[in-house]
Specification:
Layout (H helix, E strand, L loop, with lengths): L1 H26 L10 E4 L3 H4 E3 L3 H7 L4 H31 L4 H12 L6 H12 L5 H8 L14 H26 L3 H9 L4 H26 L6 H7 L7 H4 L2 H12 L2 H29 L7
Antiparallel strand pairs: 1-2
Length: 301
Amino acid sequence: MQMKKSIHRSLLIMCFPAIALLFLFQYVPMFGVILAFKDYRYDQGIWGSDWVGFKNFEFFFSSQDAFRVTFNTIFMNLLFIVTVTVGAIFLAIILSEITRKTAVKIFQTTLFFPYFLSWPVVAFITFAFLNVDLGILNRWLEKLGFDFILWYQKPELWPYILTIVNFWKQVGYNTIIFYAGIMAIDRSYYEAAEVDGATKNQMRWKITVPLLTPLIVILTILALGGIFHSDFGLFYMVTKDTGTLYSTTSVIDTYVYRSFIAVGDVGMSAAVGFYQAIVGFLLVITVNTIVRKINAENALF
């Protein structure tokens, strides 16, 4: 009993730095939500500025671009969630079936490396492929006898380009998570299936995927919670903020940033950020409730 208390005390002490950082960087900034309901003036400060109710929210919802940027945000995020999740599961299963440890380490490092690259570096790499005159893709098209493509003037191509770029950068991180999940599966399931004559494909579909389902559901719920948020670096830097691409690449975050640069109103930016947080929270609660009704064991909470 005394030993258990000692272990719990040690674990609490180890958690303290993480809890302190969580409180400092996640909970304290929530105070800034108040700016969404104020006509913020730098000379009067937060408390001195006038209350304006929901006036700051009208900026976004009365905009002609509101539907377009909201659609782009949801559509692109859904595309990212589906492609990265399916791709990561596929790669994790392949990785789990490689028996040579050296090969596994090489594949893990290769897949994980893009995750550590910053968006400016990824934007530069993308530009090296898509540049009109010196881009690698246009050079290949030239050798194959095709005309150059003005990539940065073709908005219809960018949902595909951004999906590929996001997949390349993010799939390694998710693959490692699913790979860890597969490694935690009891090997006796596979041994019993092998004795019964199950093929590799049957073991993947009848053992691996069903036992990974709780992990897939939890990660999907968490991803859906951020579906109204976009990766600013991906949509702003990779597209080089090209005006001709706005019809398919402008999302809520980049729209607010451009509006803030043009108008300089802190309250309007805070209002949209608050709107994104509330919708994300409601989505997590809704999806988790649906999952809990279908199968309580797969729910996040």
